[in-house]
Specification:
Length: 211
């Protein structure tokens, strides 16, 4: 039985991932790296309060890492703060895990991630992907979901409108761009992590829906 480490467990996908892994008999222990302890208990769950700005690499130890870290520029407060979370924290975790012998790493990125994009968000995601790819994991799985469906903390009007349109107009939207449930992404991550595939693999929304 294995140990999984989840980074970004408070987000939509991270919460679903935690719930699914806690009920998965292939895993004996689930470790959450968190800024503050969450109101959740389980016999398999360990919560490690972690300072991402003063990182302790020795804590990033497991058989597999599921990285769901991500924020928005609005929440972060600036482009620099956003980049620190979505790029620097992710790369620091990946490097620490690899140095500690982790062979499998799954990353939630975003549709449109491209290091050459003129859009700051997409460029950041692309740079993060590029820098994670430079780390020699035995297995690296990158997920690029389109708009995520599910319950998030807080109210985002723009997101609610987008979700409504994506769901009600799904019949004319190409599969690659269709919205996907956060739980579906989480389950796809677990499925891929356990299928024995080595090397680097990228999954867009259309492939995520089939996993």
């Amino acid at each position: 039985m294995k140990t999984a480490l989840i980074v970004g467990g408070t987000g939509l996908i991270g919460k679903e991932l935690t719930s699914l892994l806690l009920e998965d008999d292939r895993y004996a222990q689930i470790i959450l790296l968190v800024r503050k302890r969450l109101d959740i208990t389980h016999k398999k769950l360990i919560q490690l309060v972690y300072d991402f700005d003063r990182a302790d690499p020795s804590a990033v130890l497991a058989d597999e890492i599921f990285c769901c870290l991500g924020t928005t520029i609005k929440v972060a407060g600036s482009k620099a703060a956003f980049y620190k979370v979505d790029h620097d924290y992710v790369i620091n975790i990946a490097k620490a895990g690899f140095a500690n012998g982790v062979k499998k790493f799954a990353l939630v990125s975003s549709m449109g991630a491209n290091k050459n994009s003129p859009i700051f968000y997409s460029r950041t995601k692309g740079e993060t992907e590029q820098d994670v790819m430079a780390i020699a994991f035995e297995s690296l799985y990158i997920f690029r979901p389109s708009l995520l469906l599910g319950t998030r903390p807080g109210f985002r009007l723009g997101e609610k409108i987008s979700q409504f349109l994506m769901v009600n107009l799904s019949f004319i939207i190409p599969a690659k761009y269709k919205a996907v449930q956060g739980r579906q992404v989480a389950q796809a991550m677990i499925n891929v992590m356990n299928n024995g595939q080595t090397g680097m693999h990228i999954f867009e929304s259309d492939r995520i829906a089939k996993l």
